[in-house]
Amino acid sequence: MLQFILKRLLIAIPTMFCIVLLVFILVHLTPGNPFEGEKALSPQAMRELLHQYRLDLPIWKQFFLYLNDLLHGNFGQSYKFLGQSINGLMFPDNMGGFWVTWRLAIYSMLFTVPMGLLLGCYAGIKQNSWFDKLVIVSNIIFSSIPPIVTGPIMVLIFAVTFRYLPASGWGEGDFKHLFLPILVLILAYMPTVAFVARGSIIEVLNSNFVRTARAKGLSNNAIIFKHAIRPTLMPVVSLLGPMFAGVLVGAVVTEQVFTLPGLGILTTNAAINRDYNLVLGITIFSSFLTITFNFCVDILYCFLDPKIKP
Questions:
Q1: Which of 211, 157, 146 is nearest to 179 (CA)?
Q2: Do residues 159 and 165 make contact, with C-beta atoms less than 8 angstroms apart?
Q3: Whole-prediction pTM value?
Q4: CA atoms of 35 and 165, how far apart (whole Å)
Q5: Residue 150 belongs to what H/E stretch?
Q6: ∠159-161-166 over CA atoms, to 5°?
Q7: What is the dihedral of CA 96, 97, 103, 105, to 10 degrees?
Q8: pLDDT of the chain, 310 residues: tens digit per residue
Q9: Cα 279 to Cα 274: distance, rounded to the nearest angstrom
Q10: H or E segment and range at residue 99
């Protein structure tokens, strides 16, 4: 197990370094600079600003200075929100920034994975039933519709037509304000989990060891809960890493639809204002979370499938 973890770390560390390097180069190759705006600055003032934020240095020097700050947990200073650090903008003391996005992602995953597994397994057990066909059609429909489309539809139904829920805003993070954003994320990913679980349990139930268990006279419940569930979980677990990345991105988009004070608003403002450090901070931290979650999924997969253990 230790050897397996070390191998994954040896892959994850250079991957993270390449992401930081690539994003840094792409952001700094963008034409212009963050201080070119409607208000013209004198050449002297422009030079002082560029020097203050180290933007007058060669790009390779900027990268190593930024990498040094990053290794100390410092994402730098914002170019547009003067006097504020990127860490303070992304992780404020009050509920906002990353904490909003994280809350949406965790709540949606807590509902998406168990419900998707239950629905998918039941559909696979009842193959070719109306419920099975409903799961297949739901996956086709909701996989084709992004959250940026599903969100306004939910607002139209629940907020405008029936007036059950608020159309936007965070409020105090209460149930009424969280319900629609989380519902949009669940609808975006739960049908996929259900479809994968359905295909997996159908394959497992048609395998040789299940036929042998039936031949021995085991009941269907014993076969499903003692022999079929564990191998059914493996394809779903392998899906969790990419799905978590998708949920984070989907949460950022959903925040825009429902005007939530999460990373979505910060990302939009950073892109519009050319706030390099804020773009870098959000992108790098999101990549770090994705790699970390994939790393945890790999370890979990190792427990479920003894064949991949070193």
A1: 157
A2: yes
A3: 0.83
A4: 41
A5: helix 147-154
A6: 10
A7: 150
A8: 777 778 888 888 899 999 999 999 988 887 777 777 656 677 888 888 888 888 888 888 999 999 999 999 899 888 887 778 899 989 988 778 888 888 888 899 899 999 999 999 999 988 889 999 999 999 999 888 888 899 899 999 998 888 888 888 887 778 888 899 999 999 989 999 999 999 999 988 888 888 888 888 877 778 877 778 888 888 888 888 788 877 877 777 888 888 888 888 888 888 887 888 888 998 898 888 888 888 888 888 777 766 655 5
A9: 8
A10: helix 98-125
Structure tokens at 48: 């002082």
DSSP string, 10-30: HHHHHHHHHHHHHHHHHHHTS
The residue among 76, 104, 100, 59 whose CA lies nearest residue 266 is 100
Region of 171 (left: φ > 0; alpha: ψ -120 to 50; beta: rest) is left
From the number of C-beta atoms within 10 Å of its C-beta (0-12, 13-18, 19+), residue 194 rates as: buried
Number of residues that this document lists for the chain: 310
Amino acid at 104: L
Two tokens, residue 97:
């920034």
Which tokens hold the place of 196? 């994968």
